[in-house]
Amino acid sequence: MKVAEILEQREFDQGREKEICEMIDFKYFKKKGYVPEKRYSTGEKITELRKILEVSSLEYLVTFNHLVSYRNTRDFTEKSIVNSNIMLELASKKARNKTTTKLNRRKLEKSLPTLRELTRQDPKDFAQELTDILLECGVVLVGLPALANANLNGATKKFGNGSVLLLLTDRNKASDIFWFSLFHEIGHILENDFSSDDENGELYRRSEERADQFAKDLLIRPEDYQAFVEKGNFDKSDILRFSEEIDIHPSIVLGRLQNEGILSFDRYRELKENYYFVS
């Protein structure tokens, strides 16, 4: 080994990048084919991660990106910021230059009923149609396998050419969470909300609540849901009947009832499907 390589290895082992590298599950990159399956020293891991993410230093990853709207399921920590940034960089590489179509909010809003109808279809049938509809509106949909410690279900980012990245992860594969996360992110896009603030918890919370409410009301109209809840009948047959009436996947009705504490999370699991949406 050359002297320069020895010094570089020592810098890797002792520097800040080593701390950051230890926050990252490097097995993810082996499993997903980003790097060959073999043993890597800390220095080699850092070198490979720099190449994959196209950054000069892993220290770039600790900076919270305020120009991205994250659907993060827990409080932001340095580890979650590092891993969320990795997912965002991987998704951005996939999405960048996929289209020159600028975001067309009016067209996206008009497409909402069609997008909602897709909830009743099988993933193998709706995946391409969903991707195509969004692309026509200037939105590039990317699905990625979840990276440990990112705590991320979705994110949106606006590119310089006017198009938009919509990232969904398979962190939770349940069908109701997939659709809720999708429409949550679309809510951010329609509101031109492409930012997050890790230091202003109240501002971040209000932004997330608006997007949550948009997704809830789009998937199940408030008046329909209120009428259903007031009846007080929540057997499996009642859920199936109501979902048929409003033309929505039954897991979405079940998930809403569970999240509002009306039903426990162990009820009617058979109504939920697992989606493996990776593009």
Form type:
globular
Mean pLDDT: 89
Helix percent band: 40-55%
The low-confidence runs, each spanning 5 or more residues with pLDDT under 50, are: none
How is this structure best described in words?
By secondary structure, the protein is of the alpha+beta class. 52% of the residues lie in helices and 9% in strands. It contains 12 helices and 4 strands; from the N terminus they run ααααβαααβββααααα. The mean pLDDT is 89.
In summary, what is this structure?
Helices cover 52% and strands 9% of the residues. The chain is an alpha+beta fold and 279 residues long. A 4-stranded mixed β-sheet has the order 1-3-4-2, sandwiched between helices.
Can you lay out the helices and strands and say which pair or pack?
Blueprint: H1 3-14, H2 16-21, H3 27-31, H4 42-53, E1 68-72, H5 78-95, H6 105-117, H7 123-136, E2 139-144, E3 152-158, E4 164-169, H8 175-190, H9 201-219, H10 222-231, H11 236-245, H12 250-259
Parallel strand pairs: 2-4
Antiparallel strand pairs: 1-3, 3-4
Features:
about 280 residues, 12 helices, 4 strands, globular
